[in-house]
Amino acid sequence: MEETEEEKKDEADYKRLHSFPLIRHSDMPEEMRIETMELCVTACEKFATNNESAAKMIKETMDKKFGSSWHVVIGEGFGFEITHEVKNLLYMFFGGSLAVCVWKCS
């Protein structure tokens, strides 16, 4: 069964709509937040089928750039309660339903 032009257009619109990151909560300074958000998008796109590798890439990069003790959770359908350092938390969605939480706790 071949896709019609209408279905292809709808799929392209859906992908475009859900490919932008949506920040749910962050207390990071502006520059750090933007850098972290871009890193998360890059990692999630690079490892689209492997959340563990994406989380590892984000954690290692954050540890090098902003000091150690960063934690990363990536996935769909999870809850969490964390303790974190002030001005070191980012909680965002990417690709529609993929949640990314990045925080520092020493």
TrEMBL record:
One of its GO terms (cellular component) is axoneme. InterPro entries: DLC_sf, Dynein_light_chain_typ-1/2. It is found in: Cytoplasm, Cytoskeleton, Cilium axoneme. Gene3D superfamilies: Protein Inhibitor Of Neuronal Nitric Oxide Synthase. The keyword Cell membrane does not apply. CDD domains: DLC-like_DNAL4. Keywords: Cell projection, Cilium, Cytoplasm, Cytoskeleton, Dynein, Microtubule, Motor protein. GO terms for biological process: microtubule-based process. Transmembrane segments: none annotated. The keyword Methyltransferase does not apply. Consists of at least two heavy chains and a number of intermediate and light chains. Belongs to the dynein light chain family. Force generating protein of respiratory cilia. Produces force towards the minus ends of microtubules. Dynein has ATPase activity. This is Dynein light chain.
